Here is the input.
Amino acid sequence: MTLVKSAEFKVGVIAISSSKSFIARLEPYLGSILHFHEVAFPLYTREEIKEILHWRVQHGFYPGVMTEEAFEMIVDLVARNGDIRYGLYLLRRAGITAEKRASRKIEVEDVIAAGEGEEITLLAKSLSALNSDEKEALKIIYSLDEEEITTGDIYGIMKAEVGLYYERFYEIINKLERLRFIDLVFGRKGKGRTRYIVRRYDPKVVLEAIRNYG
Here is the structure.
């Protein structure tokens, strides 16, 4: 009789999700054995966005159909959040809009019409990557009436409301910048240098997105 030793295999499962609520939707015994790790992928730069969209214009439209002004507007809109899918959507919808008005050119007005109402939907996707503290910080930033907002201003509010530690606060602020909800710039206030928060979107649009999808 021949004895055959069976081979032993170790199996690992890797799950990828763009939403942090993924773990919460699993059965409890599954969630306890999965180790969550957040990986941040850098967003496209403006030049990378322009190159990708230019290739799509060359292969998706007849030469000269897309005006330079309309194309630059699309690049600017996409560069604000780094989601190239938004750019592809705008190209397609702007083309359809131009066709509907029997135009041989895609103009700025077609891009504006294509983007109406879509910015909130796009923001909703980015909001899914934020936890409750990060959404709260974003809400505070976009709720303030002041034009000049410093990181110290927001930290003071967050510390009073949720008792946030300094290190965790700056992790949140840096993540909001990485996801292009805000820009951080250095300036002078009094005798020292201060980091100012610049909002990239219309506050009403962001607050509506948080209210509906946050």
Q: What stands out?
A: The CA atoms of residues 46 and 76 lie 8 Å apart. The chain has two domains: 46-116, 130-213. The chain has a mean pLDDT of 84.
